[in-house]
TrEMBL record, chain A:
Signal peptide coordinates: none
Protein name: Sarcosine oxidase subunit gamma
Organism of origin: Pseudovibrio denitrificans
TrEMBL record, chain B:
Gene3D superfamilies per UniProt: Folate-binding superfamily (3.30.2270.10)
Name of protein: Sarcosine oxidase subunit delta
Compositional bias (Basic and acidic residues): 95-105
NCBIfam families named among the record's database cross-references: soxD
GO biological process: tetrahydrofolate metabolic process
Record region (Disordered): 85-105
The organism's place on the tree of life at top rank: Bacteria
GO molecular function: sarcosine oxidase activity
UniProtKB/TrEMBL annotation, chain C:
GO MF entries: nucleotide binding; sarcosine oxidase activity
Upper taxonomic lineage: Bacteria, Pseudomonadati, Pseudomonadota, Alphaproteobacteria, Hyphomicrobiales
Keywords: Cytoplasm, FAD, Flavoprotein, FMN, Nucleotide-binding, Oxidoreductase
Listed name of the protein: Sarcosine oxidase subunit beta
Gene Ontology terms: cellular component: cytoplasm
Localization, UniProt: Cytoplasm
Length: 170, 105, 417
């Protein structure tokens, strides 16, 4: 059976965890130069920077490694007036991309969510065989898993076992 | 597997993303120093353990991270409602409520 | 009732067991008893037996809403051990092991007690330190328990995977040789038969509606589905249903009832000589005399009376079993079931008197009540008969949640057990 789904790790990227109260989101958006998403699972992209809303007061911001100042500096400038918590977590996570026609099915082997309900361009925090991950559907057949570094071998191991099973037609 | 509606994510999601966090609406005493030993026992240890509709806390740990409350029937495990943590307990089914009255009287 | 002996068994075998008489009569509910025990599980039936045998109290009824032994007595994984950390627990559980040894003869009923040994696996440095502490504490209390290296553990239990690269590596094990298993149904049946022979009434399918109290607060009797029954003393031994029954007497308890699941595989030839438990991954396994692998898991995370429990836990348990015993990866599971276990905040039972005169309580055994059956029943009968706890169960009061003198096995084992 032909199986054309690819699992690959992505190069390092800048990642920030942003927590702030609702009344300060306007100031945050203004400083960043784009509107922070307002519903959970919504992903907003502005140039090279993305913002994903994970919880009622929590966002994950990403950018290329050498452009981290674009997030850090404008938010630091408004800190006095709009209190927030911005924590750099770039080295905490590794991203894994799963792309191909069977991507959804491959991820379903270890993710309890109904992935059909995850729309393109949205991302959620969920579990992948007891490992907490951020799962983003970048395209219909392309997903990204952000996994804490120490769990990467476990997740990659499961994905490679599942890939082998699919290849064998199990 | 239980499917639980998170009132913050507004989605029905698998139990594996959630953690149970005990009976809901137990208020910590405002003046801890004035509590008797019996009152501390009630606050810390005594639980309704109701056979019927049970108000309880859950946390969407592997999701939005928020604690919220749920009303669930402990015989059928069916969720009657989930609601944000500040909201009051909703009323449940007639049968479940009857056994609650039995416990609270 | 006829007595079982080698001759009677041989006779039965030769005549095809055609004329087996009922082992206990289906009793009619009388209007008054000296003692009524609520809950016809091993603990309740055992207490009735010891009341009759050791205290001469025979005007006793054991009432159950369902059938005899149909609750947690028939829903556990039949493991028996006494390797508990604290002095109080070690005395209580070891009292039970002492009584298990000889119970079949005492009851003239084979409970198939098998002291095949219980092995508890250590998977990390914390486990190693904690188990060694348990072993030292046990030996000071006269409870047998020894430390095994991974190789010694493998020698005793060949299917064990001791590869250092395993997901849950085995760094050693604590081993109690006096531990083992018994046939759970036979325990209930043996106690029921022996108690009935001494005059105890066993009333099945009779739900208790409420515990009634007189103007001075003492118990007066029980309201049941078959009407009111007078009783001087009422002893509640109702496991997961305890909170609901006790609430009718106005006693609120530090209990929460959780589903606890177990499952069995298809039967295979004898391959698994011991009971092996892993607290860290919360799975335990033994092989029954029928050849099935009996596997138990931890409690579900939420309070429930469903007697079911969720599949994620079963999956987790089986994943752990497959990891520790790769040989079982392709074995098929036959059936799974759930019990409702009543858990206390310190994971130790409540066994003694209550604030209500004439009302006695035996509950809170959590996930480990079966192993204690004879010991618990024995001291509970003493407590009921003397209106005074036996020295062994004296520390297991309800008051400890007010005084703060907990017996914190929860902290000692870091799991419900």
């Amino acid at each position: 059976m032909a199986f054309n789904t690819i699992v690959e790790t992505l190069p390092a990227m800048g990642r920030f965890s942003l927590r702030c109260k609702r009344e300060n989101t306007v100031a945050m958006s203004k400083a960043l130069g784009f509107e922070l998403p307002s519903t959970i699972s919504e992903l907003v992209r502005s140039g090279n920077v993305t913002a994903l809303k994970l919880g009622p007061d929590e966002w994950m911001l990403t950018c290329p490694m050498d452009e981290r100042a674009k997030i850090k500096e404008p938010l630091a400038a408004v800190y006095a007036d709009a209190v927030h918590s911005l924590t750099e977590v770039s080295s905490r996570e590794v991203s894994i991309r799963v792309s191909g026609p069977e991507a959804e099915e491959l991820l379903s082997t270890s993710c309890p969510r109904n992935l059909r309900e995850l729309t393109v361009g949205c991302g959620v925090r969920t579990v992948f065989d007891s490992v907490q991950v951020i799962l983003t559907r970048e395209e219909q057949n392309q997903f990204r898993l952000d996994v804490w570094r120490s769990f990467v071998p476990h997740v990659m191991g499961l994905l490679s076992v599942a890939t082998k099973e699919f290849e064998c037609g199990l | 597997m239980l499917l639980i509606h998170c009132p913050y994510c507004k989605e029905k999601l698998p139990e594996l993303e959630f953690e149970y966090a005990g009976q809901a609406h137990i208020a910590r005493p405002l003046n801890p120093a004035e509590q008797s030993d019996a009152e501390w026992r009630d606050y810390l240890f005594i639980r309704s353990n109701v056979r019927g509709d049970h108000a309880e806390q859950w946390r969407h740990t592997h999701g939005c991270g928020r604690y919220f409350n749920a009303l669930r029937n402990t015989v059928s495990d069916k969720f009657i409602a989930t609601y944000e943590i500040e909201q009051p307990r909703p009323t449940g089914s007639e049968e479940g409520e009857k056994s609650n009255e039995q416990l609270e009287s | 009732m006829s007595k079982f002996s080698a001759v009677s068994l041989l006779k039965g075998a030769l005549t095809g067991y055609k004329n087996v008489e009922p082992q206990w009569p289906d009793a009619e509910l009388k209007s008054e008893y000296d003692v009524i025990i609520v809950g016809a599980g091993g603990h309740g039936l055992g207490a009735a037996y010891y009341l009759a045998k050791e205290h001469g109290i025979t005007n006793v009824a054991v009432i159950d809403k369902g059938w005899l032994g149909g609750g947690n007595t028939g829903r556990n994984t039949t493991i028996i051990r006494s390797n508990y950390l604290y002095d109080e627990s070690a005395r209580l559980y070891d009292h039970a092991v002492d009584l298990w040894d000889g119970l079949s003869q005492d009851l003239n009923y084979n409970v198939m007690f098998s002291q095949r040994g219980v092995m508890m696996l250590a998977h990390n440095v914390h486990d190693v330190q904690s188990f060694k502490r348990h072993i030292h504490a046990n030996r000071l209390n006269g409870v047998d328990n020894v430390w095994l290296t991974p190789e010694q553990a493998k020698e005793k239990c060949p299917p064990l995977n001791i590869s250092p690269s395993a997901r849950y590596p085995v760094m050693g094990a604590a081993f109690q040789q006096r531990g083992g298993t018994a046939r759970h149904d036979a325990v209930a049946w043996g106690y029921a038969r022996a108690a009935a022979a001494r005059g105890v009434d066993i009333i099945q399918n009779c739900p208790v509606l409420s515990i009634e109290r007189g103007p001075e607060g003492a118990v007066t009797g029980l309201q049941t589905a078959r009407g009111f029954v007078k009783a001087k003393k009422i002893a509640v031994s109702a496991a997961g249903g305890t909170s609901v029954v006790m609430d009718t007497a106005g006693v609120r308890l530090p209990l929460e009832s959780y589903p606890l699941q177990a499952l069995v595989s298809e039967p295979v030839k004898p391959i698994f000589p011991q009971v092996v438990m892993s607290n860290t991954v919360h799975a335990y396994i033994s092989q029954s005399d029928k050849g099935e692998l009996v596997i138990g898991s931890g409690t579900d995370q939420y309070v429930s009376y469903s007697q079911r429990g969720g599949l994620p836990l079963i999956e987790h348990t089986l994943a752990a079993i497959c990891e520790v015993f790769p040989i079982f990866r392709r074995i098929r599971m036959l059936r799974k079931w759930g019990g409702v276990v009543d858990v206390t905040p310190d994971r130790s039972p409540i066994l003694g008197k209550t604030p209500v005169q004439g009302l006695y309580l035996n509950c809170g055994w959590g996930t480990g009540g079966f192993k204690a059956t004879p010991g618990s029943a024995h001291v509970f009968a003493h407590t009921i008969a003397q209106d005074e706890p036996h020295p062994i169960n004296a520390p297991f009061t309800l008051e400890r949640f007010e005084t703060g003198r907990l017996i914190d096995e929860a902290a000692a084992a870091a799991v419900a057990h």
